[in-house]
């Protein structure tokens, strides 16, 4: 997996590749691009002139946008509004899909990146529309049906806030790279030459949650991706820092809202 550094203001620190060319030909409402990957791949920071829905039929996509890290798994996509800088990567073979929407055809107020539910019927219809023979009127009607069926995935939290405080950068990079890192708050404070209280305050100010809660969220996001890759629950528990499977399952359910077995059944 290609790891991405914490998000930072693109206008001052990195060049953003602007994609100004339109993907959707008028009078159509949307178009879907299929991009299979056979190995690790990274997409640098860029924007699109149209709304974009990043989704997967197989494999895991990691995206960074809006100062957050998102894990895109089959069944849940990431909505990226037009003009929003984003970057992403896949670590193994994946069936990457991107659906672009003409801005003037979209009426809902999705002004920020958001997780979107994609049931099998919608995914199949989006792919079917790539090659099906239809009149213009038929295609536009079918595309409108796809748009009407898209709903935000409020019950599935797939984003991790990324602290931008430079004092926290070594900690953030280490845990995003290895969610199983079990160093305590006190150990991290010593390594970063600050007090535990200062570290706690810095985390609260940056992401409105404690260090322990943030690390647990990182671990559960990593666990979702590994479960979707076919890794056993026992192995995932060990990889993300839990000594017992039962403790991992309990933490997963408490954080995500469903069990690791539910994730496997959805794939």
What does this structure look like?
The chain is of the alpha+beta class and about 270 residues long. Helices cover about 40% and strands about 25% of the residues. The strands form two sheets. A six-stranded mixed beta sheet has the order 1-3-8-5-6-12, covered by helices on one side. A six-stranded antiparallel beta sheet has the order 2-9-4-7-10-11. Strand 5 and strand 6 form a beta hairpin. Helix 2 runs antiparallel to helix 3 and helix 7 packs across helix 9. The longest helix has 18 residues. The protein is globular. The two termini are about 20 Å apart. The N terminus is likely disordered.
Give a short account of the largest sheet.
6 strands, mixed
Approximate strand percentage:
15-25%
Q: Averaging pLDDT over every residue, what do you get?
A: 85
Number of DSSP-assigned strands? 12
Structural class by secondary-structure content = alpha+beta
What percent of the residues sit in helical stretches (DSSP H or I)?
25-40%
Count of separate DSSP helical elements:
10
Gap from first CA to last CA: 20 Å
What's the SSE pattern? HEEEEEEEEEEHHEEHHHHHHH
What low-confidence regions span 5 or more consecutive residues with pLDDT below 50? 1-13
**Structural Rg:** 20 Å
Specify the oligomeric state.
single chain
Strand line-up across the major sheet: 1-3-8-5-6-12
Dominant shape: globular
Concise structural overview:
This protein is an alpha+beta fold and about 270 residues long. About 40% of the residues lie in helices and about 25% in strands.
